[in-house]
Amino acid sequence: MDPAQGRGWAVLKGGELHGPIASHQGDESAFVAVKQESKP
Predict the structure, then answer these.
(1) What backbone phi and psi angles, to 5 degrees, belong to 6?
(2) Quick count: other Cβ atoms within 10 Å of Cβ 14?
(3) pTM as predicted
(4) Cα torsion at 7, 1, 34, 11 (round to 10°)?
C-alpha cells in the first residue's frame, strides 16, 4: 500500500461511529462503523 495523507472525523450515534474520510487531493467517502458481536 502506498503512503497517503488525509483527514477525517467521526461522531458516535447510538452505538455506531459515523463520519467522513478524505485523502489529500483525492476522494472523500462517508463511513459507518458498527461493533461486531464477539463469539462466546
Answers:
(1) 180, -160
(2) 5
(3) 0.67
(4) -10
